[in-house]
Write a structure and sequence with these properties.
Blueprint (H helix, E strand, L loop, with lengths): L1 H6 L4 H21 L2 H4 L4 H10 L5 H10 L1 H11 L5 H19 L3 H33 L4 H54 L10
Helix pairs in contact: 2-8, 2-9, 5-6, 6-7, 6-9, 7-9, 8-9
Length: about 210
Amino acid sequence: MFEMVQAGGWLMLPIILCSVIALAIVGERFWSLQEKKIAPKNLLAQIWQWNKSNSLDKEHIRALAASSPLGKVLAAGLINRHHPRQIMKESIEETGRQVVQDLDRYLNSLGTIASITPLLGLLGTVIGMIKVFAAITTQGVGNPTVLAGGISEALITTAAGLLVAIPSLIFYRYFRGKVDVLVLKMEEEAMKVIDVMHGDREQASVA
């Protein structure tokens, strides 16, 4: 493996660095984007219970906000539950934008890695071919060892760039889709809370 990296030239170093960063991002996002952490299923039932028992106070709302991203969004609306529906909705949307930004954390970096690693591999290909033609110019085609070294560098960097880029792109798309699903779920839960607090929906129908 080390010999292959060495044969690929100095461009293998940024490609390897990109692979390490991509692996770290994928692991962190798998851990952070679990649905049970982002949008627990029992939050709405807990809110209905507090509301029914008239115990929906600041302490409970504070605990709700600290429990999860969905809890943070719902808490923003519940703080303004005595205000008009539009005010409650705007406070939820404002907090929701902050939460979505947190859910998107590191995904742009992962997408960037998926985009630049093939280019790094292509650059390695160009440099390797330049070496091949330079060798042909100075030594002719009679030295296959020199030619093979340049061609090997070109092929190794290209392959390495693609090996990093393809999984990075797959996971980037996967996490983007997962974030979209989680955001949609949070929007649905938030609308249920707004409807109930303003009497547009019965609690029993959403519990």
